[in-house]
Amino acid sequence: MRGAKLGKTWQLHGMMLPGVALVLVFMYLPLPGIVLAFKDFIPSRGIFGSEWVGLETFEYMMYLPDSLQVFWNTLKIAFLKIVFNFPVPILVAVLLNEVRKAAFKRTVQTMIYLPHFLSWVILSGIFIDLFSQTGIVNQALGWFGAKPIFFMGDPGHFIRMLVATDVWKNFGYSTIIYLAAITGIDESLYESAVIDGANRFKQVLHITLPSLGPIILLVLTLSLGGILDAGFDQVFNMYNPLVWSTADIIDTYVYRLAIVDANYSLGTAIGLLKSVVGFILIVTSYLLARKYSDYTIF
């Protein structure tokens, strides 16, 4: 019976193979490399010839002033992204649901989805040009008599720009989740509200938003698992030494230590610590989602 079922769905299983291979090669095969965090790794001696130092690298990491700053920067940037990425897709989904012109609705949806599929390598080049001291944003400020703002060199302005550009890139894709949830709301609720004399604003306030409650809670809970993922691609392609004090995150710090400075043991130790904390957060968020939203994977 199972073989007959597999014979009907082998095409679907075949489509999964590239994704499974990608996960195995880039997620599971490198796992034995975490042993570098417990050794004083010297490339000429190799992994097995390098001296075993136990937790010494982790103790050294704790005394580095940059480590605490990097962890704080990661938490701050990730938290700000969650806070500002959270309400925008909900608002846009509710507004799009109220649009009655199908052609206009599809056009807006396509336009807001498109940035999600563009690489940060491309977008960072565009944003650096736009927000440079001679860019179009500072030129527009000059038309109103304002002084140019050093967006790419001022730590405060740079963080705001990181969050704003991340919201701009991803809110369209996140809107899909809420639009799908809105389409599942029972139409009889709106019909009853019309009979009771409720206008569109009251229907949104008392039917649409409360019906989105479970999915909003689920997305917010699951986002907790990514609190240590502040976005390597975006930060790495946009930051510079002038803003390292506030924009340097765990992933970029590990890249500089392990790849640029060739301190493989320290870079692996920091990356391993981030993975352990991230795993705990993901398990916690999953348990919370299962308890409050009845969301299960296994």
TrEMBL record:
Main location as per UniProt: membrane
Single biological process term from Gene Ontology: transmembrane transport
Keyword Transport recorded: yes
Entry GO terms, CC: plasma membrane
Membrane topology field: Multi-pass membrane protein
Entry annotated with the keyword Coiled coil: no
PROSITE patterns registered for this protein in UniProt: ABC_TM1 (PS50928)
Organism for this UniProt entry: Paenibacillus antri
PANTHER family in UniProt: ABC TRANSPORTER PERMEASE PROTEIN, LACTOSE TRANSPORT SYSTEM PERMEASE PROTEIN LACF
Name the record gives this protein: Sugar ABC transporter permease
Family indicated by similarity: Belongs to the binding-protein-dependent transport system permease family.
UniProt domain ABC transmembrane type-1: residue ranges: 71-285
Keywords noted in UniProt: Cell membrane, Membrane, Transmembrane, Transmembrane helix, Transport
Subcellular location: Cell membrane
Transmembrane segments: 12-31, 70-96, 117-136, 171-190, 211-232, 264-289
